[in-house]
Structures are given as C-alpha cells and as structure tokens.
Amino acid sequence: MEDSVIIIDDEIKIRSLLARILELEGFIVYQAQNAKEGLKLIASQDISVVISDVKLPDANGVELVKQIKAIKSYVEIINLTAYGTISDGVLAIKNGAFDYLTKGDDNDKIIPLVYKALEKAKLNFRVNALESKIIDKHSFNAILGKSKAIANAISLAQKVAVTDTTVLLLGETGTGKEVFAQAIHYGSPRKLKPFVAVNCSSFNPELLESELFGYLAGAFTGAVKDKKGLLEEADGGTIFLDEIGEMSIDLQAKLLRVLENQTFIKVGATQTSKTNLRIIAATNRDLKKEAENNAFRLDLYYRLSVFTIELPPLSHRKEDIILIAMHYLQEFTAKMNKPAFSLDKKFAEVLVNHYWKGNIRELKNVMERVVILADSNVITADLLPYEFQDETPGADPLNMQVMEKQHIVKVLNYAKGNKTETARLLGIGLTTLYRKIEEYNIG
User: Fold this and answer.
1) What's the rounded Cα separation, in Å, for the pair 49 and 56?
2) Range(s) for CATH 3.40.50.300 in the chain?
3) Are 372 and 410 in contact (CB under 8 A)?
4) Helix, strand, coil shares of the chain as percentages rounded to 5?
5) Do residues 173 and 361 touch, judged by C-beta distance below 8 A?
6) Is 324 exposed, middle or buried (0-12, 13-18, 19+ CB in 10 A)?
7) 188: number of CA atoms within 13 Å, CB side?
8) 286 and 244 in contact (C-beta within 8 Å)?
9) Do 42 and 2 meet the contact criterion of CB atoms below 8 Å apart?
10) Is 389 helix (H, G, I), strand (E, B) or coil?
11) Of 43, 197, 224, 276, which alpha carbon lies 20 to 30 A from 326's?
12) Burial class, 433, CB count within 10 angstroms (exposed 0-12 / middle 13-18 / buried 19+)
C-alpha cells in the first residue's frame, strides 16, 4: 500500500499548490479536476487518501464520499470547502469522511491531517485484508468435492445464503455441517458480523439456557455479575445451533420465541431483550419423526425447516474421497514439516472402498495419522489404522494384532508418551488405549 494521495478540485491553482506541498513530504500525488476523473483514478490506482473539494463541477464532494467508499472502503477522505457549514460537516463525517476543513484554515492543518488519515487508511486496509482472508477461508470454495451430491448441496446453500432465511442442515456426524453453516454466513450480507457456533449436546439444559440467553447478577448461585448470552454475541450476524435435537423441550419453546419475533428473556430478567440474527441449525436426527412422537416441538421443527439442506455422507460421494484425502495429506505434511507424499495404489483403493461411518472427520483423522507414521515418501496401506487392515486387498487377518500393536507404539512415540493425545490420534477412548497397552504389554 503506497503513501499516495489524490486531490480532486476544479481550481488548478489550489490543486497544484496542495500537490507540491504533499510531494515535498514524500507522498505520491494524483490530481483530478472533477469527480468522474477522480473516481476513475481511485479505482485504477493504489490510493490511500482523498482530498476533495465539496463544490465540484459534476458532483457534491460530501455525497462523493459514499461513492469513493463503495469503490475502496479503506480509503480515507478529507473534504475541503470555501464556505463551510456545520450541516455539511456533519453529513460528510456521517457519510464516512475522515475530516472536513474550510479552505484558508487548512494551511497548518492539512499535512498532519493527511498523515493521520494515511495511518487510519493503512489500518483499514489491514483489517479488510484479514476479513477477506477469513471470508475466503470459509467460503463455498473451501468445501471439498466435485461429486454431483455435494454440488447439489452447495448450489442450494449458495441460493439461500444471500437471504435471511432460517436454514436446517441435515446429515450424519462428520459430513461438514458447520463448514456449510460458515459458508452460508460468509456468503451472506451478514458476513462482517459475528458467526457464533454452539453445540447443544455439550451443555445440560440449565447451562445451555444461560449460555444462549445470558443472565443477570443474582439469577442463580454463582451469577455474581451480568453476562451476555450467545444470542447477544451473535447480534447482527449468525448463530449456528449444532445438534439442535439435543435441546430440551422447555428450551425449545424459548428458542421459538427468538425465531418468531427476535426477542428473548435473560435468565433472572423480567423484561425482554431484542436481537437481530440469523439462525442456522443442524442435526443428524429425523426431527420430523421425533416431533410426531412428541420428542421435539413440531412448531419449532416447522420454523427451523423453512429451508433444509441434506448433506450427503462420504459413502455416497466416493469420487471425492481421494480429492479430500490429498487435501488433508498436503495440510498435515506442511503442518508437520514433512516432505511431499504420494499415495500407494492399494492405499487409495482401501480409502475408496471403506464405509467411512465418521465421514469427512474420520478421513481427516486417518490422514493425520498416516502422515505421522510415514517413513518414506509413499503412503502405503500398512500405515492405515488396524481396523482397516482386514479391508486391505491381500491382507492376512492373522497379522492384525501385530499391526495393531505396532500402530499404537508408533503413535505413542509420536505423541511423546502423551496417552490422551495418542487416544485422540488413534480415534479411540482413553480407557480402550490403556486396555490395549496392558494387553500388548507396551512399555
């Protein structure tokens, strides 16, 4: 980003004088005699600060601020006028101008003001770049796969993203429901506002209520001060309610109120609070069937399911498996600072034919483990977790226990003896790991 300024003024003497002063300060200076020329230069050049006359031949400089911000939001604008008015100054700042000066009063002020505007423009630029990076990371382009099944789900999500409609994501565990929720949020007009995710199965009913709605001091034992709930934290943005089927019936009634009129009552409060947010929910349950059996509120189901998207399991998109595996192979190779790997044909065959009960999450874990264990530049089938070995073409079932022991030892060594991390990498419970260590007499 350059230290560059454009001066938009139809008076050539003023324009030239300001340009000379700024050039002596080391700024790159562009000049334009009207709004049309100025907007063209702002769009095509690396410009950080705009100094614009209020009275231009083809535009009002105060109104021009909005057009400039629409082209490059990080640019800062200083308005100059021969006859300043309070109302114009207020409107200029409201439209996004950095400052508003009267000509003749600007001789001592303009240079320090430009430096301040430049500093703010650079900060704006960095913030915009960070926001763009986050948006790109969570965009629809980040969803892996080219199969018809996933393409159909993406197409539906893209169509609903630009609306404010409530979305219900359906699919097995590990199919990427939160990834879709993020893509919908970052593809919406709310993308610069918060995305808040909460797993409803992670809290008991009382704790989930206080987390969602917040509470007032004294509402219950331990509530020593007011606390904002996640509904407030997500104001203006999106809240993602994962595993919505785990929410208690009583709490469902309170969530229904949020969906109906965007209001809620904090724990311990008597007055309602307002919020402005979009709700995206997800579940691996059949909510309609549960509603018919009185295990889920039918009215809430209908409010949540205004627009449903079913995410296909990995077993229904076999043509995507190797593509996803290669993505995670590259990710973990870079993270662990290992050389590039290729996939053995037999390894790839096992991946494609495996059922993948845990879907993408399971595949990701498998790829992390094989990168840890690989000693050569080829990923081979013997590196797969022991439960895969009976699926390997030509595998000898009698060697299963030997392979399992070797696999556990390798992962234990990688985790430097940390059994909790070892259990995570192996995809088994800690109790199971201890049993296996004892069974195989692993020291």
Assistant:
1) 18
2) 140-312
3) yes
4) 55, 15, 35
5) yes
6) buried
7) 25
8) no
9) no
10) helix
11) 197
12) buried
* Residue in this structure with the two tokens 């009960």, named with its chain if needed: 357
- The residue behind tokens 């998207």 is 309
Between CA 396 and CA 407 the distance in angstroms is 16
Please tell me the predicted confidence (pLDDT) of residue 399: 56
DSSP letter at 267 equals B
pTM of the predicted model as reported, rounded to 2 decimal places = 0.74
User: In whole angstroms, how far apart are CA 68 and each of 6, 41, 249, 278?
Assistant: 12, 11, 51, 30
CATH number of the 4-133 domain: 3.40.50.2300
- Beta-strand ranges (E) seen in 320-377 are 342-343
Question: Look-up: residue for tokens 């070797």?
Answer: 406
Domain with CATH 1.10.8.60 in the chain: 315-439
Helix intervals (H) in 138-286: 148-161, 177-186, 205-213, 230-233, 249-261
Residue ranges in the chain whose pLDDT is less than 70: 84-87, 89, 104-107, 389-403, 443
β-partners of residue 169 are 282, 309
Three-state DSSP state, 310:
strand
Q: How far apart are CA 279 and CA 238, in angstroms?
A: 6
Provide the 10 A C-beta neighbour count for residue 209.
21
Is 140-312 in CATH node 3.40.50.2300?
A: no
CATH class of 315-439: mainly alpha
Q: How many CA atoms lie within 13 A of 439 on its CB side?
A: 11
Within the chain, all domains assigned CATH 3.40.50.2300 are found at 4-133
What is residue 219's three-state secondary structure? Answer: coil
